[in-house]
Design brief:
Helix content is 14%, strand content 28%. It has 190 residues and is α+β, with helices and mostly antiparallel strands. The strands form 3 sheets. The chain has a 4-stranded mixed β-sheet, covered by helices on one side. The longest helix has 14 residues. It is globular.
């Protein structure tokens, strides 16, 4: 049984872990994995997400090229890619229904510059804000607040964003205490 502060599902060694559905929609389910080691809880973090697309192979290749990721792999029903922070994106093709969503990727300044340069040379349109908010800013980079960001359409009309710094409008109480390395729990292959 899961409660907000205890985990009852045992994992290997001295870790205890459990998976919990934290959000669901028509075609997506977000699962949070929580692990606990001898009374110390690891922070919650995104492990993977599912993005519905009409062509899973083309979408995976698009993201590999865009974000300069390692090659995708077939993962059962999905075509998957792994971001540098270990989050996995699983691309699912029909029979899932594709409804465009927004996905934002925090990238290094150098990668941001390469993406913008590629878009400029290929004529890929981008805006400083989500389309329609400031229509005169097509081809502009948003420098409001912290860092830089730009918005563009990806596969199947998904609204994508690349940004160079985390938003600074997160309340202090919601920010992580420390962005240090946390011990990784070994997982059962089950």
């Amino acid at each position: 049984m899961l409660t907000d502060d205890t985990l009852e599902v045992s994992g290997p060694s001295d870790y205890r872990s459990a998976r919990r559905v934290i959000a669901s929609g028509r075609n997506t389910v977000v699962v949070m994995e929580v692990a606990q080691r001898q009374g110390t809880t690891m922070p919650a973090s995104l492990h993977h997400m599912i993005i519905p697309v009409s062509d899973r192979d083309a979408a995976a290749r698009y993201f590999v090229d865009l974000l300069e990721l390692r090659d995708p792999w077939e993962n059962g029903f999905f075509q998957s890619v792994q971001l540098d922070d270990s989050v996995v994106i699983n691309f699912a093709a029909p029979p899932v229904e594709v409804q465009p969503q927004h996905y934002a990727f925090l990238v290094a300044d150098e990668l941001f510059n390469r993406i913008k340069s590629r878009f400029d040379s290929e004529g890929t349109p981008y805006t400083a804000d989500p389309p329609g908010k400031r229509p005169s800013q097509v081809g502009e980079v948003n420098r409001d607040g912290t860092g830089r960001r730009l918005y563009f359409l990806g596969p199947d009309g998904h609204m994508l964003e690349v940004l160079t710094a985390r938003y600074n409008d997160v309340p202090q109480r919601s920010r992580p205490q420390q962005l240090s390395q946390y011990p990784s729990a070994e997982r059962d292959p089950a």
